[in-house]
Amino acid sequence: MKWIDLLHRWTGGIVGLVLAVLGLSGAILVFKHQWLGWLPGAGDAQRQDVATLAAQMNAALAVPGEAPRSLLFAYSDFGLTRRSYSGEAGVYADQAGRVVAAWDSKWDRFELWLFDLHHHLFLGDAGEIAAGIAGLIGLAFVITGVILWWRLRKTFKLRLFPKRMSRPAIVTHHRDIGVVFAPLLFLSMATGMLMVLKPVSTAVFAPGQGAGALQKPFAPPKVEGGPLTRNLDWAAMFTAARARYPGAEIRLVALPRKPGDLIQMRLRQPAEWLPNGRTLLWFRPESGAIVDTRDAQAMPTGIRAYNSVYPLHAAKVGGWLWKLVVASTGLVLAMLGSFAVWTFWFKRPKPRARPVRPAIAAAE
Fold first, then answer.
1. What SS3 class is residue 205?
2. Residue 290 lies inside a defined structural domain of this protein
3. Boundaries of domain holding 288
4. Number of neighbours of residue 362 by Cβ within 10 angstroms
5. pLDDT at 7
6. 161 belongs to a structural domain
7. Residues 6+ apart with CB under 8 A from 32
8. How far apart are CA 138 and CA 119, in angstroms?
9. In whole angstroms, what is the distance from residue 361 CA to residue 307 CA?
10. pLDDT tens digit sequence for 171-195
11. Residue 363 lies in a domain
12. SS3 state at 5
């Protein structure tokens, strides 16, 4: 038991700050659409009629200069469409096509750099892997923390905050609040880790199928498209998509990034948890003709289970109750991680001084 305690404390003192950052940023991002509600048009009711969607595509493509890389249409709780351009540039436009906010860098928008902090720790792909490893270590924290709590379970007292800011009170609070949130902390860190560490998620959801098994069903067809026509009949394309998948919500249109690429349309069927769905259609960029489709609901069980990881992690399913639960879990993780670092590095108990034995006088 002593080595478990030692490992738990030392690892917490080192990794705790990373977990605190991930927990706090995640808790804030849960309510992103709510605190972006001050933007003009953010509170507008979502419109999914073909005419409105087609008008938004035509408005975006009519702007002189570079065409957007993608359009992410308004949600039921956020009435703006996001146009993304090369690099980090983008705009928010209302559903009539009017631009209400624009940026050239993620540093221009709080929600963008906060998202990058949570997902990449400002370090790109390396930061994403580091965050995934931190989540994996966090799972070990939960398991070892429950083991260490069990022997002291009779002293359990539920407090939201430590009784006082002394090291013993903080350690006691850390242990007790940690065991209360242990199942939710485990779920939060497991889902976050599974999204990032592909070898682990492949082993869980597609065992024995090798690298890339989870991405293979979503790979574009091996068909080369022509040059993008700016005046495509978007209404006809959206109508064709709806005919293939009645009742589906049209979420995103991704335009070709390089010559030969196809137009990709992403839909969300009613049974899908992912906010942007994983039902896909590809169109020829020169004519708008359908090339291929993928039905997310017809995919293998493992793929559909993997598609539920992000909605659970980011509280995109379950309504307001699950949002509050996930945000609370993130705040508790931030508190546990920051207090662990503080008590380990700045509140460590001083070693006891050994009593000095009096020297025995030599016999004369």
1. helix
2. yes
3. 41-93+213-299
4. 5
5. 57
6. yes
7. 111
8. 16
9. 79
10. 888 889 999 999 999 999 999 999 9
11. no
12. helix
